[in-house]
Amino acid sequence: MNALVPILAALLAGVGLATQSPTNAALGRSIGSVTLAALVSFAVGTVILIAAWLSFDRTPLAALRGARPWMLVGGAYGAYFVAAAAFAAPRLGLASMLTIMIASQLLTALVIDHFGLIGLPRAPISWVKVAGVLIVLGGVILVRRG
Description:
With 146 residues, the protein is an all-alpha fold. Helix content is 77%, strand content 0%. The chain has helices at 4-31, 34-57, 74-92, 94-115, 127-145. It is globular, with a radius of gyration of 18 Å.
């Protein structure tokens, strides 16, 4: 597959991540509940995913029998992300919140890649990767002070 397609998908996902938090925070302020805002966000996303599954995929639900229980917790991470971001964005500012999240994602990704966890191929940590993460961590400090 051409690398352009996943790169574009990742770029669009980044735009979505940057706009999702303030959108959910605005809903939370409007209705007086960050938790309900996160629930509504997940409900809308669930409806969209069901429509996409029914329209394009149709993998039978029975296929889930082959999944190990730990493979089903991704939604819990997502629920926490949506609620935490809606809570943190108006308190920290969007740029600060996102740089903190990105730094923690990169640190976690280095560990997952290095040990080949969660079914991913091993990609050992290198000084170049560590330098990249340190630059992002420096960005967190600059954004928080700026």
